[in-house]
Amino acid sequence: MKVFESVAEWQARRHEFVARPLGFVPTMGALHQGHLSLVKTCTAENALTVVSVFVNPTQFDDKQDFEKYPADTRSDLARLEAAGVDVVLMPDATQIYRDEYRFKVTESEFSRRLCGAHRPGHFDGVLTVVMRLLNLVGPDNAYFGEKDYQQLQLIRDMVSAFFMPVNIVACPTVREADGLAMSSRNRLLDENQRARAPALYAALKSSRTADEARHKLIDEGFVVDYVEDLEHRRLAAARLGSTRLIDNVEI
Ligand code: AMP
Predict the structure, then answer these.
(1) Which of 121, 159, 211, 238 has the smallest CB count inside 10 Å?
(2) Hey, whose CA ends up nearest to atom 14 of ligand 1?
(3) Ligand 1 centroid from CA 206, angstroms
(4) C-alpha of residue 37 to centroid of ligand 1, in Å
């Protein structure tokens, strides 16, 4: 497994990694089984797998959230190597944002709803970094989790709108045994919060309406950002203390 911390070095040596199809999994690190399921699908479907580990500052609307975002580089690299990844890109923000974020991708409708309504600028940051990473890697296939359902939808729409030559592959949400969707942020929950966290998935699944789910979450002590039904999905974001959890289920 080759690790590139320098974007310039990756660009200079890219031509050495010629096998096709090329698959790409973008991540923000602190890897768990959810990420690894994307990596597993990617290695099974592609001749070469590239993974990026980059905590993207532009998608954090809250500075504290960015500062406390978990990092575990050594363990991430060991897991990626064991999973058969060929290339890891771990650039720093100054390399990804040489323009100091003068150029960005903005979606003006769906990105303003749901998570976007509570996190101003979040999806501009997500779409901009995904566009930059896809341009750097040039994959045939790129893998994203259904856990971040609105993000997945916006990335699909961006790729279509800009005629980007990449196939977006959606991967199902991986959960803990008690139903909690795996997330790097779960490690920020204290014991009591961790015990209550599975109620998010349970409420989404077991309620007849979004409003009923919202009330169940409030009863469990969540501060609810939203619960909304959108076509055949019920999506929610809710906070336990300062940790924000998201989830969605098919309805
Ligand atoms: P992140 O590191 O949180 O930016 O996530 C990187 C990718 O992994 C995104 O496409 C996420 O949707 C995906 N992902 C994160 N958690 C899960 C999960 N529990 N199940 C499936 N995919 C996930």
Answers:
(1) 211
(2) 145
(3) 24
(4) 9
Nearest residue by C-alpha to atom 11 in ligand 1: 145
Would you report the helix, strand and coil content of the chain in percent, each value rounded to 5? 45, 20, 35
Taking the C-alpha atoms of residue 248 and residue 179, their distance in angstroms, rounded to an integer, is 12
Q: Each residue of 2-34: b (16+ CB within 10 Å) or e?
A: eebeebeebeeeeeebeeeebbbbbbbbbbbeb
Read off the pTM: 0.98
pLDDT digits (tens, 9 = 90+) for 49-97: 999 999 999 999 999 999 999 999 999 999 999 999 999 999 999 999 9
Distance CA 185, CA 70 (A): 7
Give, using CA atoms, the residue closest to atom 10 of ligand 1.
144
Residue 240 in contact with residue 221, Cβ under 8 Å? yes
171, β-bridge pairs: 145
Check if 173 has its Cβ closer than 6 Å to any atom of ligand 1. Answer: yes
